[in-house]
Inverse folding.
């Protein structure tokens, strides 16, 4: 009998106190106080094309080196240096920002970085400029003057 009582107490401890203890541990973890980083919204070329008709967002080419652009691109910032060009980005963390690159890889990294920096409305062009062209939309190719094409941040007025 004594063994049965003890095992019931142990089971009670395990079923009630263990979940409470685990919850306390999880709430105390470093990740508990942080907001979960959202994933960027993915845009198909057709969706971006439609949005460009009434453009109310920042369009950023994050591809390096320069290999063309979607008209009307607002900024050129290297995908791996987004955090170094905060002065070029909107101060409003709710501003809509669309990023793209040649194939989608660099822009997905840049989009995640923007989310980690606190921006809330980040969109990534699925498939990048390759998908844009495959959907029948044109790219602009400007002759690059001045600093090298791989320079991280370039003004559109070059």
């Amino acid at each position: 009998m004594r063994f049965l009582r003890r095992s019931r107490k142990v089971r009670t401890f395990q079923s009630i106190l263990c979940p409470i203890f685990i919850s306390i541990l999880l709430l105390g973890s470093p990740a508990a106080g942080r907001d979960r980083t959202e994933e960027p919204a993915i845009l198909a070329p057709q969706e971006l094309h439609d949005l460009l008709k009434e453009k109310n967002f920042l369009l950023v080419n994050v591809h390096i080196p320069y290999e063309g652009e979607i008209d009307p691109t607002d900024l050129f910032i290297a995908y791996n240096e987004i955090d170094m060009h905060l002065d070029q980005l909107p101060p409003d963390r709710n501003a809509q920002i669309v990023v793209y690159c040649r194939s989608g890889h660099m822009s997905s990294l840049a989009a995640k970085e923007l989310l980690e920096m606190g921006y809330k409305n980040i969109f990534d062009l699925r498939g990048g400029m390759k998908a844009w062209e495959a959907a029948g939309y044109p790219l602009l190719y400007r002759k690059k003057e001045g600093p090298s094409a791989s320079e991280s941040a370039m003004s559109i007025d070059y």
Summary: The beta strands are 41-43, 58-61, 75-77, 96-100, 121-125, 153-154. The chain has a mean pLDDT of 80. The helical segments are 2-27, 45-52, 105-116, 128-134.
